[in-house]
Amino acid sequence: AIQSKSLFVTDVETGLSEPRFVWLGDMRLEVFSGDHILVGLFAGIGLTVWSGGFIIFIFFVLRSHKEILMEPKILRRFGFFFNGLEPDWYFWELLVKRVDVLL
Q1: CA dist., res. 60 & res. 54, Å (int)
Q2: What is the pLDDT of residues 49-60, one digit of tens each?
Q3: Most CB within 10 Å of its CB: which of 6, 23, 70, 101?
Protein backbone atom coordinates (compact mmCIF):
# COMPACT_ATOMS: atom_id res chain seq x y z
CA ALA A 1 0.00 0.00 0.00
CA ILE A 2 1.11 3.52 -0.70
CA GLN A 3 1.64 5.52 2.45
CA SER A 4 2.36 9.16 3.09
CA LYS A 5 3.62 11.15 6.03
CA SER A 6 3.19 14.74 7.11
CA LEU A 7 6.45 16.55 7.79
CA PHE A 8 6.96 20.09 8.97
CA VAL A 9 9.55 21.91 6.91
CA THR A 10 11.01 25.21 8.10
CA ASP A 11 11.70 27.86 5.49
CA VAL A 12 15.25 29.16 6.05
CA GLU A 13 14.44 32.71 4.90
CA THR A 14 11.21 33.30 6.84
CA GLY A 15 11.65 30.84 9.71
CA LEU A 16 8.05 29.63 9.28
CA SER A 17 7.16 25.94 9.45
CA GLU A 18 4.68 24.50 7.01
CA PRO A 19 3.39 20.96 6.60
CA ARG A 20 4.59 18.92 3.65
CA PHE A 21 3.05 15.58 2.74
CA VAL A 22 5.52 13.14 1.20
CA TRP A 23 5.40 9.54 0.00
CA LEU A 24 7.14 7.19 2.41
CA GLY A 25 8.54 5.20 -0.52
CA ASP A 26 10.41 8.24 -1.89
CA MET A 27 10.40 11.22 0.46
CA ARG A 28 11.48 13.57 -2.33
CA LEU A 29 7.99 13.29 -3.87
CA GLU A 30 5.27 15.50 -2.41
CA VAL A 31 1.72 14.15 -2.31
CA PHE A 32 -0.82 15.97 -4.52
CA SER A 33 1.61 18.46 -6.00
CA GLY A 34 3.34 18.89 -9.31
CA ASP A 35 3.01 15.90 -11.63
CA HIS A 36 1.23 13.86 -8.96
CA ILE A 37 -1.81 16.09 -8.56
CA LEU A 38 -3.63 14.40 -11.46
CA VAL A 39 -2.89 10.93 -10.09
CA GLY A 40 -4.11 11.99 -6.64
CA LEU A 41 -7.27 13.48 -8.12
CA PHE A 42 -8.11 10.29 -10.03
CA ALA A 43 -7.33 8.16 -6.97
CA GLY A 44 -9.59 10.27 -4.76
CA ILE A 45 -12.45 10.18 -7.25
CA GLY A 46 -12.02 6.44 -7.75
CA LEU A 47 -12.06 5.68 -4.03
CA THR A 48 -15.10 7.87 -3.50
CA VAL A 49 -17.08 6.29 -6.33
CA TRP A 50 -16.03 2.75 -5.45
CA SER A 51 -16.69 3.11 -1.71
CA GLY A 52 -19.62 5.50 -1.45
CA GLY A 53 -21.10 4.84 -4.87
CA PHE A 54 -22.06 1.27 -4.01
CA ILE A 55 -23.88 2.33 -0.84
CA ILE A 56 -25.72 5.11 -2.67
CA PHE A 57 -26.63 2.77 -5.52
CA ILE A 58 -28.07 0.13 -3.17
CA PHE A 59 -29.99 2.81 -1.25
CA PHE A 60 -31.69 4.10 -4.40
CA VAL A 61 -32.47 0.58 -5.62
CA LEU A 62 -34.08 -0.29 -2.29
CA ARG A 63 -35.92 3.02 -2.25
CA SER A 64 -37.33 2.40 -5.71
CA HIS A 65 -38.67 -0.99 -4.50
CA LYS A 66 -39.83 0.33 -1.12
CA GLU A 67 -43.43 -0.83 -1.57
CA ILE A 68 -42.49 -4.39 -2.60
CA LEU A 69 -39.47 -5.11 -0.36
CA MET A 70 -41.04 -8.24 1.12
CA GLU A 71 -41.74 -9.94 -2.20
CA PRO A 72 -39.62 -13.06 -2.73
CA LYS A 73 -37.84 -11.72 -5.83
CA ILE A 74 -36.66 -8.57 -4.03
CA LEU A 75 -35.85 -10.46 -0.83
CA ARG A 76 -33.62 -12.84 -2.80
CA ARG A 77 -31.74 -10.01 -4.48
CA PHE A 78 -31.45 -7.41 -1.73
CA GLY A 79 -32.66 -9.04 1.49
CA PHE A 80 -29.12 -9.09 2.86
CA PHE A 81 -29.29 -5.33 3.32
CA PHE A 82 -32.57 -5.16 5.25
CA ASN A 83 -33.47 -8.65 6.45
CA GLY A 84 -34.71 -8.58 10.04
CA LEU A 85 -35.67 -4.92 9.95
CA GLU A 86 -39.09 -3.33 9.70
CA PRO A 87 -39.93 -2.54 6.06
CA ASP A 88 -39.99 1.21 6.79
CA TRP A 89 -36.43 1.01 8.17
CA TYR A 90 -34.80 -0.64 5.14
CA PHE A 91 -32.15 2.09 4.97
CA TRP A 92 -30.86 1.55 8.54
CA GLU A 93 -28.49 -1.27 7.61
CA LEU A 94 -26.96 0.86 4.85
CA LEU A 95 -26.78 4.00 6.93
CA VAL A 96 -25.23 2.54 10.05
CA LYS A 97 -23.53 -0.72 9.20
CA ARG A 98 -22.24 -0.11 5.68
CA VAL A 99 -21.10 3.46 6.32
CA ASP A 100 -19.40 2.22 9.50
CA VAL A 101 -17.25 -0.04 7.32
CA LEU A 102 -16.00 3.01 5.42
CA LEU A 103 -14.78 4.64 8.60
Answers
A1: 10
A2: 888 888 888 889
A3: 23
Within 8 A by CB and 6+ apart from 27, the residues are: 5, 7
Q: What is the pTM of this model?
A: 0.58
Amino acid at 98: R
Nearest 5 degrees, angle CA 21-CA 17-CA 40? 20
- Which among 84, 82, 44, 40 is positioned nearest to 61, based on CA atoms? 82
Q: What is the pLDDT of residues 44-92, one digit of tens each?
A: 899 888 888 888 888 898 899 888 888 899 889 888 888 777 878 878 8
Q: What are phi and psi of 98, to 5 degrees?
A: -70, -40
